[in-house]
Design a protein that fits this description.
The chain is of the alpha/beta class. It folds into 2 domains: 2-220 and 363-391, Crotonobetainyl-coa:carnitine coa-transferase, domain 1 (Rossmann fold), CATH 3.40.50; 250-328, formyl-coa transferase, domain 3 (2-Layer Sandwich). Helices cover 38% and strands 14% of the residues. It is built from 17 helices and 12 strands. The protein has helices spanning 30-40, 69-72, 88-99, 110-115, 120-126, 151-157, 160-166, 179-202, 212-224, 240-243, 264-273, 279-282, 289-294, 296-307, 312-321, 339-343, 385-391; strands at 2-3, 21-25, 44-49, 78-82, 103-106, 131-136, 207-211, 250-251, 256-259, 326-328, 347-352, 356-361. It has a 6-stranded parallel beta sheet with strand order 4-3-2-5-6-7, with helices on both faces. The chain has a 3-stranded mixed beta sheet with strand order 1-11-12, with no helix packed on it. Strands 8-9-10 form a 3-stranded antiparallel beta sheet, covered by helices on one side. A hairpin with a 4-residue loop joins strand 8 (250-251) and strand 9. It starts with a strand and ends with a helix.
């Protein structure tokens, strides 16, 4: 890994969002992931935590209490302020911060915000320019609106575990990552930015709703609505290529490889490479693009039979030579020494004043004029309470 030259003395002052202040009342993964991205772009993100801290502080492994790995990797470029919002004087401190802010984000249900005396109407009265963004399970106004929501539940609600069974899994399974949280977090980022742009035109903030269920549903049904796109229906739901049982990394003589013959040029090169250049002419299942899609699982099965005849290294060389899309199947450990990430400075060594040296991924977006960066590592609980509150009296 390279030494980190991205830490700045003046945090984020050259980023695209320099000067934008975000009050972050979120916890766990969804909201913190979104606000970390805003911080990567240079926003001043003030993370409001209860005295017990964000619950993800306590998910190990960790070197010191309250600094779990998921928390560290979702809360860089933020300042931590501890406020007990059930205490009137500390609620007033939050409202004072809102007067100085451009955005407030939260990920509890609106009714809970109202119980804290922090409804949109209250916040809007304090600062009419404030963009208030709530990310929670389900849109307001439906039968699910008051239901609690977590990543696993939302994955189930949009059919992802069922889709796993349709594509070969022996039982329903969740994707092994916080998929719903992070997809919704990305929606939260662009929703906040859209509202900020609107405020430049109108001078007034607004409330923005970013529901997990509806966000992930857009993500899934963009592929799988299929025949139900039309009324009346043209056919079943479910995109055949993505559901093919044989759509998976191909076994080779000594491992697995990820290859995709997507267009006619790819297929012609591959079939010639494996010695069956006339397959599409001799097998009616594959004669046209439409027939190949209809029989895509069988076609992937044919590819799999040929892939077993060579080693992974041989396939990497041969497929690359013929300009056929291919990648090795990585294990997590492989990514630590990946040559592309090394060449592009994808890994950073980030010094933390209490945790020691941290391994961090560089923000993936690069901007030539307003750079992204790791301006400060994830904060300890309440590390910046005195600093931030003292700014109110300046």
């Amino acid at each position: 890994m390279n030494s980190n030259d991205h830490l700045a003395q003046n945090a984020g002052t050259h980023g695209a969002l320099a000067g934008l202040r975000v009050i972050d009342m979120t916890g766990v993964v969804l909201g913190p992931y979104a606000t970390q991205i805003l911080g990567d772009y240079g926003a001043d993100v003030i993370k409001i935590e209860p005295p017990s801290g964000d619950i993800m502080r306590h998910a190990g492994p960790m070197k010191h209490p309250g600094m779990g790995h998921i928390f560290i990797n979702a809360n860089r470029n933020k300042r931590s302020v501890v406020l007990d919002l059930k205490k009137p004087e500390q609620r007033e401190q939050l409202l004072a911060l809102c007067k100085t802010a451009d955005v407030l984000v939260y990920n509890i249900r609106p009714a809970a915000m109202a119980r804290l005396g922090l409804s949109f109407d209250t916040l809007h009265a304090v600062n009419p320019r404030l963009v208030v963004c709530g990310a929670y399970g389900y849109s307001e106004g439906g039968p699910y609106s008051d239901w609690p929501a977590y990543d696993d539940l939302i994955q189930g609600a949009v059919g992802m575990p069922w889709l796993m069974t349709q594509s070969g899994s022996t039982e329903p399974r969740y994707a092994p990552t916080t998929f719903a949280d992070r997809v919704t977090g990305l929606n939260m980022v662009h929703a906040v930015m859209a509202a900020i742009i609107a405020r430049y035109r109108t001078g007034v903030g607004q409330h923005v709703e970013v529901p997990m269920f509806e966000c992930l549903l857009q993500f899934v049904l963009g592929d799988h609505l299929c025949g139900e796109t039309w009324q009346p229906s043209l056919g079943n739901m479910g995109y055949a290529r993505l559901l093919a049982v044989n759509r998976k990394p191909y076994a080779t003589q000594d491992g697995h490889i990820c290859a995709l013959m997507y267009n006619d040029a790819h297929w012609q090169a591959f079939l010639k490479l494996v010695g069956v250049p006339d397959l599409f002419q001799t097998d009616t299942r594959f004669a046209t693009h439409a027939e190949r899609l209809k029989n895509i699982d069988a076609l992937y099965g044919v590819v799999g039979q040929h892939m077993r005849k060579r080693t992974t290294a041989e396939w990497m060389k041969d497929l690359t030579t013929h300009d056929i899309p291919v990648m090795p199947m990585m294990k997590l450990d492989d990514l630590l020494t990946d040559p592309h990430l090394t060449a592009t400075q994808g890994w950073l060594d980030v010094p933390h004043p209490f945790e020691g040296m941290l391994r961090q991924l560089r923000p993936p977006v690069r901007m030539s004029g307003t750079p992204t960066g790791v301006w400060r590592p994830a904060p300890r609980l309440g590390e910046h309470t005195e600093e931030v509150l003292s700014e109110l009296s300046v």
